[in-house]
Specification:
Elements (H helix, E strand, L loop, with lengths): L2 H42 L7 H5 L5 E2 L4 E2 L11 H31 L9 E4 L3 E6 L2 E9 L5 E9 L5 E7 L7 E8 L4 E7 L9 E11 L3 E7 L4 E4 L8 E3 L2 E10 L2 H22 L3 E2 L9 H11 L3 H24 L2
Parallel strand pairs: 3-13, 4-14, 8-15
Antiparallel strand pairs: 1-2, 3-5, 5-10, 6-9, 6-11, 6-12, 7-10, 8-9, 11-14
């Protein structure tokens, strides 16, 4: 039985908070128009208006707006045009204060990451290709659509292990210069490259992040997909993921096998030049860990990313309301 009063108190508090929030934002949006309309409404229907100080005070008290003692039997409407104008001015003051609160709210939301930086970045990879059995071939991972500087990238790939294997992942010629993870899981069909660069980040039309070297294992069409755990983070102080879409590519592995001589040449030309290129030049810092975390964990990350974040949705709704109010007045004031 004791829980009912407590529950009722909590509900009343929540109702008060919601009502206060609603009134504040309503005044911020339309309070100025209400303040201007109030005296006009009083001229046509004086007894259908309310003097706010008469309403707020007890019977018998002096109202400075109406300049007389409050008598509820006579009504609590403004008794003169000057009282109506002053009540309109009171609404205007509350409206301006409400606008200020909404403006401060918008700054707080921005600090918290709302609205998020727009998702404009895409991974660009070759749309198709055909190769022979045993042939090694590169798949360059290029990033385009950069509208704000980026400072961290994670490329997660999924492929069919019956038809492909990853020989290595090269960072030669990468726009990034710090790499913290390079993972290859040819049993589960996953690969990951994670890296970035310090402030101010990378800002150009596009740039190469890395190159994955595949080798065909069996003939047929095989698809390589970027996983939803892939990320491109903006250098906006909030670490916003600006990756808007996931790329995929299909390769045709032909039944014709490469010769032993061709295989040896590939090892010498492709792999050795790749290693020498990375060793000789880019000033990259690498913190690769010798462990495999891809597979089941990648699937768990994907499931986690798909779960709706109710708090984030709620905050985005509040931020959009504030942005609408500020945008409305910005349009009127020409800003």
């Amino acid at each position: 039985m004791n829980r009912l009063p407590s529950l009722k108190l909590i509900l009343n508090i929540l109702l008060f908070i919601f009502a206060s929030w609603f009134i504040l934002h309503a005044l911020a949006l339309g309070g100025v128009f209400l303040a201007l309309a109030y005296p006009v409404w009083w001229l046509f229907a004086p007894r259908m208006t309310v003097c706010f100080l008469c309403r707020a005070q007890n019977d018998g008290k002096f109202c400075p707006l109406c300049r007389e003692v409050i008598d509820e039997n006579k009504g609590i409407y403004p008794k003169s045009i000057s009282s109506a104008v002053l009540n309109g001015g009171l609404i205007l003051i509350f409206s301006i204060v409400s606008m200020g609160i909404v403006f401060v709210e918008s700054k707080v939301f921005f600090k918290l990451g709302f609205p998020p930086t727009p998702k404009t970045v895409s991974f660009i990879i070759p749309t198709k290709g055909q190769y022979r059995l045993g042939e090694m071939f590169p798949m360059k991972i290029e990033i385009a659509g950069i509208k704000t500087p980026i400072n961290a990238i994670q490329a997660d790939l999924d492929f069919d292990v019956s038809k492909l294997e990853v020989v290595d992942i090269s960072t030669e010629g990468s726009m990034a210069n710090i790499f913290i993870q390079k993972e290859i899981n040819n049993e589960g069909g996953y690969a990951r490259l994670t890296g970035g660069l310090p402030n101010p980040g990378f800002f150009a039309e596009k740039g190469i992040f890395g190159t994955v070297f595949f080798k065909g294992k069996s003939p047929g069409v095989v698809k390589v997909d970027f996983l939803p755990t892939s990320m491109v983070l903006a250098n906006d102080g909030k670490g916003t993921n600006v990756l808007k879409e996931l790329a995929s590519v299909s390769y045709l592995i032909l039944p014709e096998e490469i010769t032993p001589e061709e295989e040896q040449m590939q090892k010498e030309v492709i792999l050795q030049s790749m290693v020498l290129g990375e060793a000789s030049g880019s000033g990259q810092i690498k913190f690769f860990e010798e462990k495999s975390i891809l597979g089941t964990e990648a699937e768990e990350e994907i499931l986690t990313n798909k779960k709706p974040n109710l708090f984030k949705i709620f905050m985005e709704v509040l931020e959009k309301i504030n942005r609408f109010i500020l945008g409305f007045w910005g349009g009127i004031l020409g800003k």
